[in-house]
Amino acid sequence: MEEEYITALIALHTGLDRQGPGDGEFTHNLLRHLPPLPSRPRIADLGCGSGAGALLLAEHYQSPVLAVDSSAVFIQELRTRAHAAGLDALITSIEGDMGQLDWPQAGIDLLWSEGAAYNLGFERALGLWRPLLAAGGVAVVSELSWFTTEIPAPARTYWQAAYPEMETEAENCDRAIRAGFRVLDTPRLPSEAWWKNYYDPLRSRLATYPKTGLSPVEQTVLRDTEAEMTLFQQFSHCYGYTFYLLQASSP
Ligand SMILES: C[S@@+](CC[C@H](N)C(=O)[O-])C[C@H]1O[C@@H](n2cnc3c(N)ncnc32)[C@H](O)[C@@H]1O
């Protein structure tokens, strides 16, 4: 993606609680179903945005979280939010590339990544992150996935252009296994959560943009965002975010 497009996309998402679909209650429920972790697990949130996941995890476990994002804007927002929530002692916010982490091997008990792995490619991300996990460590990684193999043409055409590597849940499970994980569960984020926590706030933000004077790239970002929402309205039964609950398998 070209730089000007990414800058416009970041501007559109600045000040929102989330930069992608997710839900606090869904996350809390999911945490209840993870295998036992150490009482103060070492946690990483990769592609954390302004910290929806990192803040929840730090609060829930009262344990340190390394939160990484390549956007300086989102990292600054996370610092402000962590301070406001009294969690800044627990959250280390790092502006950096989640695909080039020079962290020690086996130092993370819970690796979290919501709506971000696709930037590296799902299987590549899992392969790069697997060595970071302690023995028996858990990874929770959400990935846009097809819920069916009978994909309607408009949805296929759109995602073929926007995210050609998008796959079915079965294929994503195989990718996770190849990357060195055991698949524990694959809950789907309900489509209502997309609207309530992500698309509705995004729609309100879009409404604040002026009708004239936008750069061509800004216009493209707005058009693409509208198109993505329209598509989801029609085809949310065919695709969505699946959360892959994974455990590091022994080599
Ligand atoms: C869809 S947003 C999700 C953000 C957050 N996890 C959430 O659910 O609100 C994807 C995030 O990945 C970040 N990102 C993309 N490529 C990255 C990279 N190579 N390293 C670190 N962060 C990256 C973007 O800046 C963006 O904040």
Describe what this molecule looks like in 3D:
The protein is an alpha/beta fold and 251 residues long. The chain has one domain: 3-Layer(aba) Sandwich (Rossmann fold), CATH 3.40.50. 43% of the residues lie in helices and 20% in strands. The protein has nine helices and eight strands. It has helices at residues 3-13, 24-32, 52-61, 72-84, 122-129, 153-162, 169-178, 191-207, 216-235, and strands at 43-46, 65-69, 91-95, 108-113, 133-146, 167-168, 181-185, 239-248. Strands 1, 2, 3, 4, 5, 6, 7 and 8 form an eight-stranded mixed β-sheet that branches. Helix 4 links the parallel strand 2 (65-69) and strand 3 (91-95). The longest helix has 20 residues, at 216-235. The chain is globular and about 55 Å long. The site of S-adenosylmethionine has 21 residues, from helix 3 and strand 2.
Describe, in short, the structure shown:
The protein is α/β, with parallel strands linked by helices and 251 residues long. It has helices spanning 3-13, 24-32, 52-61, 72-84, 122-129, 153-162, 169-178, 191-207, 216-235, and strands spanning 43-46, 65-69, 91-95, 108-113, 133-146, 167-168, 181-185, 239-248. Helix 4 (72-84) links the parallel strand 2 (65-69) and strand 3 (91-95).
